[in-house]
Amino acid sequence: MTTTHVWYDVKQQEADVRDPAGLDALIYELAAGPEPIMLSLFRPEDVVDGMRPEIEFLVGIGRDPRFALIQCGDLDGLWYTLSASTGDQGEVFYNYMHNATDYPANAEVPIAQVVAAVHEFAATGKRPSAVAWQRVER
Q: Is the pTM of this model over 0.85?
């Protein structure tokens, strides 16, 4: 795993995580937090000439410590994780930059799947195959 830079909204904090255990600890700690937030993750080596990476990778945690979601923007479009469950079809909200952003309820998946996807992203810098995806039509 390479270094993963994590920015999160609680008091505009950020961290550079250098190992899988540290990444797990941060995710699970924030998932148990007081509010649903989005983490923005990127790999410093993917930043070229000060320009942001070609992929935007956001992780929603903290609404329910058992579940999380990923929003991933890449050259192929915008994607949300897709739950295998056909349960609630409503919306869930996560705070990103102090704004409540809505997502379909079927974007939430078990947090263990999200953690596996985050590890894959940290290793490859690409949209992970460890989770199912749904394309977001704009």
A: yes
pLDDT in tens, 61-119: 999 999 999 999 998 999 999 998 756 668 899 988 778 889 999 999 999 999 999 99
Q: Which domain holds residue 19?
A: 4-96+127-135
In angstroms, the CA 138 to CA 124 distance is 27
Q: Which helix (H) or strand (E) holds 28?
A: helix 20-31
CB of 40 closer than 8 Å to CB of 17: no
Residue 51 DSSP code: B
Query: How many residues are there in the chain?
Result: 138
pLDDT value, residue 17: 80
Domain count, the chain: 1
Compute the distance between CA of residue 42 and CA of residue 3 in angstroms, rounded to an integer: 9
d(CA 84, CA 98) in angstroms, rounded, equals: 30
Q: What is the DSSP string of 92-111?
A: EEEEETTEEEEEEGGG-EEH
Question: Nearest to residue 2, comparing CAs of 133, 109, 118?
Answer: 118
Task: Phi first, then psi: give them for residue 98, nearest 5 degrees.
Answer: 65, 20
Q: Is residue 39 part of a domain?
A: yes
